[in-house]
Batch of 3 targets.
Target 1
Amino acid sequence: MDFKVSGKMIYAYGEYLSEGDYYLASAADVFFMHPEGSLEFNGLMANITFFKGLFEKLEIKPEIFRVGAFKSAVEPYLRKDMSPENRLQYTSLLSTIYDIFLTDVAQSRDIQKEDLSRYSKELLVKVPEDAYQLGLVDSLGYKNELKSFIAADLEIDEISDINFISYKNYKKSYKSKYSKDKIAVIYANGSIVMAGDDTQVVGYKLAKEIRKARENKSVKAIVLRINSPGGSLVASDLIWHEVSLTKGIKPIIASMADVAASGGYYIAMACDTIIAQPNTITGSIGIFGMWFNFEKLLENKFGITHDVVKTGDHSDLYTATRNLTDFERSVIQKGVNKGYKTFITKAAKGRGVTPEVIDQVGSGRVWSGIQALDNGLIDIIGNFDDAVALAVTMSDIEGAYRIVNYPEQKSTFEKILGSVTDEIMISNPMNNEIMAPYLKQIKELQEMKGIQARMTEELTIY
């Protein structure tokens, strides 16, 4: 929408359009849709996968410890459906996100918001002709017909005379001018873990990047760009600590992308200013601990048994082949309670309120960016560019500056190696569209070491 202010035209073309695809394309001045394509315009839904039935069949017993009635990350292992609290929070979240969707589409397409809501609820868009007649798209046609339309707009006779350029090549056409003054953009993208790969936020590694930016005299301010559902409490706290050390030395701004929840919020809360998008999923201030007892699975399904020799009554506390005692559960729950108290205390310090105020909007509940602003969890509704602009203003930079990314970008050779790895993963017959989400969740269970500040990751909104 900011680009449209320039007065330059935006053209969009789509074949199979989800609601997310349509949301993006609706901002175009001219929108062509394939005459045999499809447009999903029926509202949002959240789908959560539950594993309790599987565990019952396999005789696996989960041991769960949590704080917060809304801390739903553990529900898939305890229930076969949503709890009333979880249903409440996601109903509220989806309603808010979809209201933003309808408001923005109504503005960009010049259609009444109430009419858009009716189109969605009554499933009035069944075929492309419906989308055209209802004004959701401007024309039904093929890509070459859109190109002809563009040529006419540009007063060019032949499509071949249009100088199309890919985004990849367009990026090469401009570069930041050299300047000694820099704004560091540090990316926290993925689950927060103590040890992991480039698809995750490794606590000590990201903390090191923040420290490097803080100690670099040419870096005048930092933007911490977060897209994470959280993860390890300890890893999150390592990052929070470096953010706290940076605050007061140079400006540090949190810029929230799609998700900055639980540990993702934790690492933001010490920043000078927190900026989120209207539909960012954030909050989820709560923690949990979890592991599983595999004794019955191993014994009854595989004939594997265990026996131990130990020096103390609780030396085998963290083994996965026996039940915990009530005393042991109380010890672990005490640690989880302490972690939650730490979370809300540090959040309160960052927000300038009492822990009791944070607790009222905590308990693991997730919020949209708009709701988070109303609840005092963030400072500003805005995007990445707004965060960079604020960082420049707060750093008192005068004149030119350039943006530097942390961590440093991979070399071409490293990218090639990554591509080879991806091809190997794709060749795995178990890595298919149907099984991949479930296998991903099982893999993530293995990474949940220690107390977790994590939002449920298996949530799919579409």
Target 2
Amino acid sequence: MKSMKRLKPRRITNKVMSRLLKSNDLIVLLGARQVGKTSIMYLLIDNLLQVEKVESNRVFYFDLEDMNLLDVVNRGVEEFIAFLAAKGADLKERCFVFLDEIQYMENPSNFLKIIADHHKEISLVVSGSSSFSIKTKFKDSLAGRKRVFEIYPLDFGEFLEFKDRKDLAGFWDTGNWEKARFFEGDFLRYFEEYVIFGGLPRVSLLPTREDNVEYLKDVVNSYIKKDIKDLFRIDNPYAFNKAIKLLALQAGNSLNFTNLTTMCGISRRTLERYLFILESTFFIRLINPFYSNKIKEVTKMPKLYFMDTGIRNIIVGDLNSLEGRRDSGSLVENSVFLMLLTGKGPLDEIYYWRTKAGAEMDFVLKGEGERWRGYEVKYRPFEEAKITRSTRSYINEYSPDLTCICTKNFYQDKINMDLMGLSGLNDQSKLIFLPVFFLSNRPYPSVPWLTN
């Protein structure tokens, strides 16, 4: 097991720990490889041992990539209980058992159900790298008995903390622009590094660019060889690899299925299967268009985003700085999507909006209670608050509670809507200009409900 002293804290750990202590539900950590699931397990174990003072003979961790351990759990619950006893477990008291990479088990659903029904003394925390495999193997018998936490790459605040810039992370967390503005250059430098190399925890800790390149290459190769080869049958690896490359080039754009199938030499059904596999293994995410008028607005063609921009960039073979890149706008937009995804509430949904005439809002977030927010990414310097015709069309059409223009370095949170040509809106409708590196689900001074 890794040295606990070397582990950086993750923000989701407190939520998982609270659930673990308050209930006996099965806890499932889902996420891509290298996203930090194992480290979060170690952090939970450390908290149990050091903070909650749980005895060491009541806390156990097992990595199911170890074939010997996998063989033990596949032999059934009674064999596993005997194994725990042989390891010195005090089964008269509540024990905490962590099973890493549960998707390798033959029948995890039955195994976990028996423990839930007949071994209340055992609290389980399990992890998996494939939502399809987990959903397929976790039958309905576990409905209502599990709590799933999806683990994402680092958000930008965590990235700053991993870089040992807790001062900047503090400004980011609290939305204190009055202080943060003095460190604009530092924020931009770290944000561009975050966009280029992504948010996998280890990336933020490696010392050199060359180390990051080699590590990201290894992550992609391991994903193809392990998650894909072990969990799915790909009859045409060449077409699959070509599809991944083409999808990486289209990150931040709507998918044209006809063009993709023609370029890959595959059927639409095969392409849809590839997309399903990539989503199920937390490699990409598709979002659908939001519409209320089928005649005027786009109703089909999902937009695609990668779950880590560093992985996307290593696939296209470009880890150069944002300046001068043709894809800098879509890259920043991808990072904004990840910020919204990691910060959204459990009932929030993310869409995009586009009219057939070409007006567009990059992201539309539908929140609980029919609250709507729009996010337009304009990664360039602003001298003053200005909006595009597209943004004006969206606001006038839907009167959203909030519209956020994500700029490179311009901040303004008190906007005269009439001067912007926005009239007849509801009293709660707000417009804010925000540096993209400062975007987070936090309460802003003029938008107190923005936090979930």
Target 3
Amino acid sequence: MEIPEVQYARNGDVALAYQVLGEGPIDLVFLPAFINNVEIVWESPQYSRFLRRLASFSRLIFMDRRGTGLSDRFSPADLPPLEVLMDDLAVVLDAAGSEHTALFGYSDSGCLCAMFAATHPDRVSALVLYAVAAAGVATEDFPWQWSPDEWDDYFRDLASGWGTRAYADKVVPWFQPSLADDERHKAWWARFMRQAASPNSVEAIERIWHLIDIRPILPTIQVPTLVLHRTDDQVEYVQAGRDVAERIPGARFIELAGGDDAPWAGDQETVLDEVEQFLTGKRHMPEIDRVLATVLFTDIVGSTKKAAALGDGRWGELLTLHHERVRAELERFRGREIATAGDGFLATFDGPARAVLCGQAIAEAVHDLGIEVRAGAHTGEIELDGDDVRGIAVHIGARVGALAEPSEVLVSSTVKDLVAGSGLSFEDAGEHELKGVPDRWHLYRVVSEQS
């Protein structure tokens, strides 16, 4: 998957990283919540699919705010006021050649987008707000927010756990509950945190927003506005979203099912359909093809412990070597890389034997790096959705891979039955329940490859 080119704009001495993708008829800025890294997000299949869908009907401008990702950081003792962050956005728009754009902000970035739309209505065609609260701290007239004590608890947890897998395990069920059982996502989220902001930097970012109150400016917004909020969001409560919509003249409020605080998690299609219709007047017609394919999942065994032992620098170097060798074997066996998440790969093959042989070759190729991988393969019907794949066959492949032992390739009975005559041999690994998948599944471990 090709990652859009990273470009830089400068507001004085501060460098601001951004990407532009898509050739749609409207310009659209998507500003994510508190942290970001415009390169690392593309490793997430959910996030990358979300961004590419936005770019399918717009010229999408995607940026790292000051203090996060590939943009310059700031000191906790030197927090920029909101107008400086607005100036940063204007600088990026100028650099991207955008004179008139729609803004899509969620959580704290929604406050920035609202402020920009109120201040520069000549530059904003429309405003989309998702999971936005107008004030950062609960008061008698605004009870739908965290109390000062809750903020203090949050800051303590953040300072002690930021960027660790344990902290990701704790916050993913809160921020993205639909992905709470997705081990690959939680591993990616831990890496994303580390690459998006340091502990001091993220605390500084959060302290900008926890005392903000944009309620006075909301009635001055003149541009068409759509406010979206999920009913069971436990980070930004749905009552806060209703309050935002009530304060903006003519705003449309849509309450969505689910609890994910991120628009790209959970049922993102419903979010995207509403945004596309609001901005273009048209409903998206999905183009999904179904094909038979073999999915192969690989990941490094004991990666969390290994990363902690090596430190970020050496672990990053090891991951680079691992990725190079995995990609070389994928090319050799005609595999198509779909996604990476931390140390894991998802690839598809048009033949099950090639997938199995590739899994074995990957395990052998990385052995001298001092690491072991496990691999799982399953053959079934998958849905092709742009650069991504979906469907029950993908979930089965992931569950099979999670059960594999170090340096082992584990396959479903479907794969075993389809590779007859290939020279591959298998041992019975018994029947297993695969989490989230109906019935019990007979699995087999590969014990030899074709000579």
